[in-house]
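Hi Y.,

Following your request, here is the sequence exactly as I used it, all 601 residues.
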Amino acid sequence: MRQLFLLISCCSVLFSLSLDAQIGCPGCVVNLPANLPADTLLLQNLPDGQEGVYYNEDISFRMPKTTTPVNAIDSTTPAGLPISQIEIIAIEGVPPGLYWQPSQTVFETANETDGCVKFCGTPTESDSFVMIVRIKATVFFIVQEATFPLRIYIAPEVSTTDGFSMTDFEGCGSTTVTFTNNIPSNGAPGFSYEWDFGDGTTFQGENPPPHTYDTPGIYPVNYHATIDTGGFRLENIRILEVDCGDNFSGPDLYFFIYDANGEEVYNSQPHIEDVVLPFTFPVNLELGGGNYTLAVWEEDSGLKGTDDPCGTLPFNILTNDTVSAAGLTVVFNIVNPIKEVTSTDTVYVYPQPAVPLIQTPNGVEECAGENSILLISSSGTGNQWLLDSEPIADATNFLYEPSQSGQYQVQVSNSDGCTAVSDSVLVEIHPLPDSPLFININNSLRLADTTALPVEYALQWYNGDDPIPGATGFRYCATESGNYGLLVTDLETGCQSFYSSTVTYDPNFDCTVGTNEAFLLTLGIFPNPASNVVQIRLNQNLPSEGTLRVWDAAGRLVKSETIADGIDFWTLDCGDLNTGFFTLEIAADGFRGIGKLAVMR
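Below is the corresponding structure, written out as tokens. Let me know if you'd prefer a different format.
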């Protein structure tokens, strides 16, 4: 809003621009804070989005009724001026894939200042985008265009598998992929990782560095995590054979397990009576390093009074097999639970289009109205022309004829959505000089406004189609009736304007004889701009009866009045003049005054 009223005192009228909205997101809802002042300026922020994820968000705003809220943030803007109308012209630089639609575009501030905009769609690019909101405001019938930024962040698309995630896994020409391990060790032992990036490159470790793929192709990324954190566990022992027991029944077995220090770590009591071999005893004992000892006993507390040893066997975490000694045969079932995680995802690198070239067979400079500049893209398809880095609507042909000055580029897209942008070409379309309107005073043809000439100029008078030799000044003395013309050339740009008018020779005056020339004076005109009546003030009394002439911007005489001698001001009724700019002249013997008038409705 800083620029909104910087030019509020200027008299120029800016023509309305068509709304450049992207339709397709209807139904936004106005949601403003309670107790918000009626005359204030508020625009809500846009939430972040993510590439490849559908976005549907509303933002609300309140437009100001006067310039007072603007003055609070821009002291150069005068406060207290009423704003009669605000119009949303466009929102430029919207992220690709997003669209927008406002609740309305024109706000008559006396009736309505609240509105909203819905942004929707699926973003196709990630970045921090600064969109430009373009509006028009009307103050005292003066229309001024202004812009202000609207920011949105689109996060990169993310692909997630059980084992890992990737960021920026799609690219044009090349892409640098960042990998995230979804099964981190957090510093604990027992984790190992293997990565295969699909391009002949591998990595062993928990967190690989970003990896760049610089050749178009499809790359399967394979991830393998080995998680060995469960340790070793003796799940059970299976006794196959013992050399102890009762004569008429099975052995009554129990056992002890001792660690390397001889400490008892497991006791299976009470005993199992009349065991039928082979027999499996559940254990579920966590094992550490070093050797263990299994001691098997046969319960015999009856008639004999003492238990019988059935034997001992050494084992460790690596045993996990059948062990025999002195008639005792045992199978140790030792497990080491290891989790294996395997995941696969894919990186896509699409071909990058060649950078297009712009040909300019007719050059890059012209005068307004010539329409000779032609821009040609080196690519026959997939073109989008840009002006000052912004897309030009419907400019998708390989040929483009620019209609305004600026930096032009062409962007080429292929079927994969990859783009390449050309270098910029500066096109300059120079304005034509003001029409060299001249007036006839007693056969003396005189340029009406020398101040409107270019800085560097050349003049040439014409009689019909023929240039008049040596007639290159502000005036030309007509010695016969005819169709006279004046050509002005802007020597800096080469652009020209021509004005002609039919002149009737008056034999009563001989302009070839020197006369007392009138000084060229500036008329005082108030008010200016005007809509009905203006006062024209002279800096001296009119020495004789004179004539007031009014020409429009095209050089046509639209009004003429006779002015009495001796006056120093004149009232002009401009109610019958159309809106626009006019040149006023008051001429009398020894006096000539010129002024500019803007008429506004």
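Residues 155 and 194 are 28 Å apart (CA to CA).

Thanks again,
Q.
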